[in-house]
Write a structure and sequence with these properties.
Length: 214
């Protein structure tokens, strides 16, 4: 890999292409046209059709999944979850994006996990029930008292639905938060850290560990 070229990483999700280009973030909706890159794009993807679109429209792409060494008994675990768990010895990894994934690592081994809707998905669910439930989340709602208005009632329910199962499974173990809502959710937990760009940092680690990647 030529060190003089830009390192272009792409995390393809269910709604966006998320690029990291020399430390700069760029996001494109899956239905949008993508810019042309002459440099190699190193990517992971949970969306086969979106990955095919990327491969078709770019000069050179490398799917990092084939270079990933990650063992688990979990069936159907997404590549994004595997990547954020890489190299973790003992911790709960919470990736809080459009979905919130929670994975358990013990002695560098994946023990399982679960998936919750992301905060934005919860909010959209309430909107679909009734226009009278169309509220943004109150990030300062008091979770120790019963709410006395609809916005707080919705916010309380959303946050409790996310926080309680994570606390139940984590107990006294360290929690690593990442993802767009990870820093916000981390404030409700002790013994936790927030790691920005964890998925991209681990993608770089895969590239650096594999001399076969050109």
């Amino acid at each position: 890999m030529n060190g003089e070229l830009e390192l272009i990483l792409c995390d393809i999700g269910n709604t966006t292409y998320h690029f990291l280009i020399d430390g700069i973030h760029k996001k494109y909706l899956l239905q949008e046209s993508l810019p042309k890159f002459k440099e190699t794009i190193f990517y992971i993807s949970v969306n086969d059709n979106a990955a095919k679109k990327l491969e078709k429209n770019q000069e050179k792409c490398v799917d990092l999944e084939e270079f990933l060494d990650f063992e688990t008994k979990y069936k159907g675990m997404g590549i994004d979850r595997k990547v954020v768990c890489l190299g973790v010895e003992n911790a709960i990894i919470v990736d809080a994006g459009s979905a919130i994934t929670v994975d358990i690592m013990e002695n560098f081994k994946h023990k399982g996990g679960f998936i919750l809707p992301g905060i934005s998905r919860f909010i959209n669910t309430y909107k679909k029930i009734s226009v009278k439930l169309d509220y943004e989340i109150n990030t300062k709602v008091n979770l120790d008292t019963i709410p006395l208005c609809t916005q707080d009632a919705i916010s309380y329910s959303i946050l409790k639905s996310i926080i309680l199962p994570i606390k139940e499974i984590s107990k006294d173990r360290k929690i690593i938060f990442t993802g767009g809502d990870g820093e916000f959710l981390s404030k409700y937990f002790d013994n936790c850290i927030y790691k920005d760009d964890l998925i991209f940092k681990n993608m770089k680690g895969i590239i650096n560990a594999n001399n076969r990647i050109a």
